Amino acid sequence: MSAPVTDEITLSTECTLGERPGYDDVHGLCRQNRDIPLPHSNGVLLVRRCECTCHWGE
Ligand SMILES: [Zn+2]
Ligand SMILES: [Zn+2]
Asked: Which of 4, 21, 22, 51 has the largest count of CB atoms under 10 Å?
């Protein structure tokens, strides 16, 4: 059984992997703690901020 996943939460590749048992360290590799806008666009995001709980408090 796995924990229920809310697909409204955006996780980076690292933190998605970090959710899995035995991969906790991978959370530390995630640097996606802010939105990255697409250059020369008006508010279009290239990368969405990772909403993993490991970034809370940053
Ligand atoms: Zn994380
Ligand atoms: Zn993350």
From this structure: 51
Q: Which residues pair with 47 in a beta bridge?
A: 36
The ligand with the least distance to the CA atom of 20 is 1
Q: Which amino acid is at 43?
A: G
Ligand nearest to the CA of 54: 1
Nearest to 47 by CA among 58, 57, 32: 32
- pTM over 0.85? The answer is no
pLDDT for position 7:
64
5-22 residue pLDDT tens: 556 788 999 999 999 999
